[in-house]
From TrEMBL:
This is Shikimate kinase. Substrate binds at residues 35, 59, 81, 136. Pathway: Metabolic intermediate biosynthesis; chorismate biosynthesis; chorismate from D-erythrose 4-phosphate and phosphoenolpyruvate: step 5/7. Its EC number is 2.7.1.71. It is an enzyme of class 2 (transferase). The keyword Cytoplasm applies. It comes from Streptomyces regalis. Transmembrane segments: none annotated. Binds 1 Mg(2+) ion per subunit. Mg(2+) binds at residue 17. Gene3D superfamilies: P-loop containing nucleotide triphosphate hydrolases.
Length: 166
């Protein structure tokens, strides 16, 4: 199987970066994050791209970054929370080992509720989370080969469960 060893998907704030780095350490491979790729390539933050250009332009930039990383990277790869909205991206994930890190809405509000750096949660975090989860949960499930519930768990425990599930 070519491409990443493991792809991590799931909502923002679920711990993809932390768990991804721990997983990469345990597997002896490198870690890559498509949000970091986008920031490095664009020379501005994700929030700035959203404000300057709007979400559709961000999604096009994200799609290109995700497809490039899927082709290039052979370690652990974390995708931005909305990357799975794109049907071509979901098709590319078929045949990959994809771990979906999940959390419920209350956990999400607890973890990210006050984080103004996240453009999709700026107005009413609980309502926005509920809508995001309803719109996306089935897409995460569609691409996942394993699901790890992170609610109330520390990243180390989530990593162990993910390793067992691989
Ligand atoms: C987004 C998730 C973010 C980032 C952007 C949009 C989303 O990535 O790409 O703010 O649509 O869920 P993380 O999941 O890495 O925070």
């Amino acid at each position: 199987m070519s491409g990443p060893l493991v792809v991590l998907v799931g909502p923002m704030g679920v711990g993809k970066s932390t768990v991804g780095q721990l997983l990469a350490e345990r597997l002896g491979v490198t870690y890559r994050d498509t949000d970091d790729d986008i920031v490095a390539e664009q020379g501005r933050t994700i929030a700035e791209i959203f404000v300057d250009e709007g979400e559709p332009v961000f999604r096009a930039i994200e799609k290109a970054a995700v497809h490039r990383a899927l082709a290039e990277h052979d370690g652990v790869l974390a995708l931005g929370g909305g990357a799975i909205l794109d049907a071509d991206t979901r098709a590319l994930l078929a045949g990959q080992r994809v771990v979906y890190l999940s959390m419920d809405v209350e956990e999400a509000v607890k973890r990210t509720g006050l984080n103004a750096a996240r453009p999709l949660l700026a107005v009413n975090p609980r309502k926005q989370w509920r809508e995001l989860m309803e719109a996306r949960r089935h897409l995460y499930e569609e691409v996942a080969t394993a699901v790890v519930a992170t609610d109330g768990r520390m990243p180390e425990e989530v990593t162990e469960i993910a390793l067992d599930a691989l």
